[in-house]
Amino acid sequence: MNDIIAYIVVVVCMVPLYLFRKKISFLFCPNDVIGKYIKRKYFAFYSLIPSFVIVAYVTARLRLLVEQSELLHSYENYVLIIALILLFSLLYLFGVVTDWFLYHSNDRYKNWRNNESNK
């Protein structure tokens, strides 16, 4: 039963990411505007790594709390579901922040994005 709930939660978390993928447009811009290595660097350093660090810390704290409490011990697997929700939320949030940062610091990307929004 917990596996089914986890799969449903993952799907529910991925739907907003798919719908709002245009908000994180630096990943989808052409390589002549921003090179693919620079896109990977921005995504890794400003979105993936902070998200994983925060999720790892929160998950470790929640697991310690659940292990110490006898009443919450049966809900140990739900910590992973909470971690998945938090991971997808933080990936989206940090992706939007990275996109905003890149928009205000890179003129070629800013021009490309303005041209795309005018179409």
* Dominant shape: elongated
Average of per-residue pLDDT values: 83
**Computed structural class:** mainly alpha
- Per DSSP, the total helix count is 4
What percent strand? under 5%
Largest sheet: none
What's the total number of strands?
0
The arrangement of helices and strands along the chain is: HHHH
Radius of gyration: 18 Å
Low-confidence stretches: none
Distance between the termini: 47 Å
Number of domains: 1
The portion of residues assigned to helices is: over 70%
Keywords:
0% strand; 119 residues; mainly alpha; elongated; single chain; membrane
Question: What layout of secondary structure does this protein have?
Answer:
Layout: H1 2-19, H2 36-68, H3 78-105, H4 107-118
Helix pairs in contact: 1-3, 2-3, 3-4
Protein architecture, described:
With 119 residues, the chain is mainly α. It has one domain. The protein contains four helices and no strands. The model has no long low-confidence stretch (mean pLDDT 83). Keywords: Membrane, Transmembrane, Transmembrane helix.
